[in-house]
């Protein structure tokens, strides 16, 4: 018996007058499944960009819950007679009732490029994806397996080496690369309070001390702490 394949919806947020989906406050909702690395990185990004009052973050509960049924209707409006699984994260348009995208990299790029950066108490007008670091950010993002959350040793080796010489992944400033790496490390059990023992890939890594200390440091910052407190941590 073949497993149901999650649908891929890849519309993008455009600009007013040039695209059906243009950025407007309170127009969009982001459906996230708690305790998943991809949901965690989206939740942190929304807070870092100062978008918590602009976009609704909706935890996706089980079948029959209001959030689940709302997302089901959005998929049915997007794909005629749709009866498959509800892929998340999902960015949904409240005005049309449709799913805009369930492709996490596109969602994250649109959060920064189309909605922000807004002003947040934590980092002001926070540019998480500066153009000069875009290619590096993309390469590092591709190294993490956010679905399985079990990378090979290569990404952990490279990250530990970087963090021995700089406070952040790409140097002296917080970027999307830090959000990605931090979310992956949380998924690997770098924070005991999220409820899981460290994965063997992290537990046996020679740079574990560096990696866990860095993860702990970011977890004390408001945007990261709030996302964990709301249940998006992985355990």
Written description of the protein model:
The two termini are 30 Å apart. The protein has a domain at 131-221. Helix content is 40%, strand content 9%. The model has no long low-confidence stretch (mean pLDDT 87). The longest helix has 13 residues, at 66-78. It has helices spanning 37-48, 66-78, 104-113, 134-143, 153-163, 176-187, 200-203, 208-219, 222-232, and strands at 28-32, 56-59, 90-93, 98-101, 119-120, 124-125. It has nine helices and six strands; from the N terminus they run βαβαββαββαααααα. Helix 1 (37-48) runs antiparallel to helix 6 (176-187) and helix 5 packs across helix 8. Helix 1 (37-48) links the parallel strand 1 and strand 2. It is α+β, with helices and mostly antiparallel strands. Strands 2-1-3-4 form a four-stranded mixed beta sheet, sandwiched between helices. It has a two-stranded antiparallel sheet with strand order 5-6.
Give the tally of β-strands. Answer: 6
Taking the alpha carbons of the first and last residues, their distance comes to 30 Å
Multimerization status: single chain
The stretches of 5 or more residues where confidence is low (pLDDT under 50) are: none
Share of helix, binned: 40-55%
Mean pLDDT: 87
Largest sheet: 4 strands, mixed
Shape estimate: globular
Structural class: alpha+beta
Counting H and I runs of at least 4 residues, what is the number of helices? 9
Share of residues in strands: 5-15%
Sheet with most strands: strand arrangement: 2-1-3-4
Q: What's the helix-strand series?
A: EHEHEEHEEHHHHHH
From the alpha-carbon coordinates, what is the Rg to the nearest angstrom?
A: 18 Å
């Amino acid at each position: 018996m073949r497993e149901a394949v999650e649908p891929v919806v890849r519309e993008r947020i455009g600009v007013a007058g040039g695209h059906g989906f243009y950025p407007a406050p309170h127009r969009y909702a982001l459906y996230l499944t708690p305790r998943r690395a991809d949901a965690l990185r989206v939740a942190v990004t929304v807070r870092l960009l100062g978008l918590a009052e602009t976009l609704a973050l909706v935890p996706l509960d089980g079948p029959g819950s209001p959030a689940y049924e709302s997302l089901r209707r959005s998929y049915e409006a997007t794909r005629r007679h749709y009866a498959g699984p509800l892929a998340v994260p999902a960015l949904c348009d409240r005005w049309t009732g449709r799913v805009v995208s369930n492709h996490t990299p596109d969602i994250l790029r649109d959060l920064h490029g189309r909605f922000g950066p807004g002003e947040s108490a934590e980092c002001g007008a926070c540019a998480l994806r500066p153009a000069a670091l875009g290619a590096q950010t993309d390469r590092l993002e591709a190294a993490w397996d956010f679905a399985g959350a079990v990378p090979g040793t290569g990404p952990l080796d490279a990250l530990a080496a970087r963090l021995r010489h700089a406070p952040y992944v790409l140097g002296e400033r917080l970027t999307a690369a830090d959000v990605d790496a931090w979310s992956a490390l949380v998924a690997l059990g770098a924070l005991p309070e999220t409820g899981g023992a460290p994965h063997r890939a992290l537990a046996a890594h020679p740079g574990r001390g560096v990696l866990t200390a860095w993860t702990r440091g970011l977890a004390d910052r408001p945007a990261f702490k709030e996302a964990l407190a709301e249940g998006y941590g992985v355990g």
